[in-house]
Design goal:
Elements (H helix, E strand, L loop, with lengths): L13 E6 L5 E7 L2 E4 H8 L7 H7 L2 H9 L10 E2 L16 E4 L4 H6 L10 E3 L5 E2 L3 E3 L10 E2 L2 E7 L15 E8 L2 E2 H5 L6 H5 L5 E9 H4 L6 E6 L2 E7 L7 H11 L7 E3 L23 E6 L3 E7 L1
Parallel strand pairs: 5-16, 7-13, 8-18
Antiparallel strand pairs: 1-2, 1-13, 2-3, 3-4, 5-6, 9-12, 10-11, 10-16, 11-13, 14-15, 14-17, 17-18
Length: 309
C-alpha cells in the first residue's frame, strides 16, 4: 500500500542496501543489535515501511523505519536481524531523478592540476547506469576505449525535500543525509577527446559507486568539516578535509536550485580533494588497472570499497 502520511525526512538512521537472492535490493538499518532486514521486519512487526531509498525519500515514511529500528532488540524482530558480515550489499540508489556533480571544488585540488578556482560551481552529470554498490567490481573497458583510470573520493549530498531557489542559510534543511562516494573517472575520455567530454569520461558503467551507508543529516552535523581519504592497494593517496571546499554544501545546493528544482532522492557529488593521479607529474602518473582495490572513506559516513577488473 502506498504511503499517504506526512512527508518526513529520516533522523537518527544509518541505512544500507541489501542485495537479495531474488534479485531485489532493499533497505537494511544498521543498529547496535545488527542489521535489520527492513522487508522481513516490516512483515514480522506489521509496520509499513519503505523498502528502498527512493521510496523513503520520495514518499517520506521515515517514521516506519524509525519504529522498526526501535524494535531491533525485541524477540519478534530477531528473525529479521543479520550479521553485517553476511550482507551482500546492493546499490543504495538505483533510480535517482538527477545525479548532479560539482567539479573542481577543493582549493588544493585546483592548485595541483594548475587551474584557477572557479567563480561558480562547475556542473556536470552522471547517469543511472553508473550507479554501483559497496564492494562492487568495476569491469574496465578495453584499452582502445579508455585506459587512464583515476579515483575521486567525494562526499555525496542526498536531497530530502524539493528545493528551488533556496537561500544558503536554509539549504541544509533540505538535505536528508550523506554518503561516501567515488566519482570514478577515465581521464583520457574526460580531457583528451575533442571538446573535453566530461560526461563521457565520468559515466561509464559502474563509475559511480556509493556506500556502504546512507547516514541521516542529524547524525553527521557539519558536512563542511569531515575528514576524507582514499587508499589504493593500501597506500594513502588522498587525505584531507571537506573544510577545503571552494563552494560549501550550502552554496552548492543554493546555486544548483537557482537553475532547476532539486527533488527528494536527487544526489549531488561534491568534488574531490588533492591527490588524484591527474595531479601527479606526467612521468609519475600510473593509472589504475585491473586488480587494484580502492577504499574511499569519509568521517562519520564509512568506508566504500571496490575493485577493478
Amino acid at each position: 500500500m502506498k504511503y499517504s502520511g506526512p512527508h518526513e525526512m529520516p533522523k537518527g538512521l544509518t541505512l544500507l542496501s541489501i542485495a537479495n537472492p531474488d534479485g531485489t535490493e532493499t533497505l537494511g538499518i544498521k543498529t547496535a543489535h545488527g542489521v535489520i532486514d527492513v522487508r522481513k521486519a516490516s512483515r514480522l512487526l506489521g509496520i509499513p515501511a519503505p523498502l528502498t531509498m527512493e521510496e523513503l525519500l520520495r514518499e517520506g515514511n521515515a517514521a516506519g523505519l524509525t519504529r522498526i529500528a526501535a524494535a531491533a532488540g525485541s524477540a519478534k524482530a530477531k528473525p529479521a536481524l543479520l550479521d553485517e558480515g553476511s550482507v551482500r550489499y546492493g546499490r543504495l540508489f538505483t533510480n535517482p531523478g538527477k545525479i548532479v556533480c560539482v567539479g573542481l571544488n577543493y582549493k588544493r585540488h585546483a592548485q595541483e592540476i594548475g587551474m584557477k578556482e572557479p567563480r561558480v560551481p562547475p556542473l556536470f552529470n552522471k547517469y543511472n547506469n553508473a550507479l554501483a554498490a559497496h564492494q562492487c567490481i568495476i569491469d574496465l573497458p578495453p584499452k582502445d576505449v579508455a585506459y587512464k583510470f583515476d579515483y575521486e573520493t567525494e562526499m555525496l549530498i542526498v536531497m530530502g525535500k524539493a528545493a528551488r531557489n533556496v537561500a544558503e542559510a536554509d539549504a541544509l534543511n533540505y538535505v536528508a543525509g550523506y554518503c561516501t562516494a567515488n566519482d570514478f573517472s577515465a581521464r583520457d575520455l574526460q580531457l583528451e577527446t575533442p571538446s573535453s567530454q566530461w560526461m563521457i569520461g565520468k559515466t561509464l558503467d559502474k563509475f559511480a559507486p556509493i556506500g556502504p551507508y546512507f547516514v541521516s543529516a542529524d547524525l553527521v552535523g557539519d558536512p563542511n568539516n569531515l575528514k576524507i581519504k582514499t587508499l589504493v592497494n593500501g597506500e594513502v593517496r588522498q587525505d584531507w578535509s571537506t573544510n577545503d571546499f571552494i563552494f560549501n554544501t550550502q552554496q552548492m545546493i543554493a546555486y544548483i536550485s537557482k537553475h532547476w528544482t532539486l527533488e527528494p532522492g536527487d544526489i549531488i557529488y561534491t568534488g574531490t580533494p588533492q591527490g588524484v593521479i591527474l595531479g601527479y607529474p606526467k612521468d609519475k602518473q600510473v593509472w589504475l588497472k585491473p586488480g587494484d582495490e580502492i577504499v574511499s572513506s569519509i568521517e562519520k559516513l564509512g568506508e566504500l570499497k571496490f575493485r577493478l577488473a
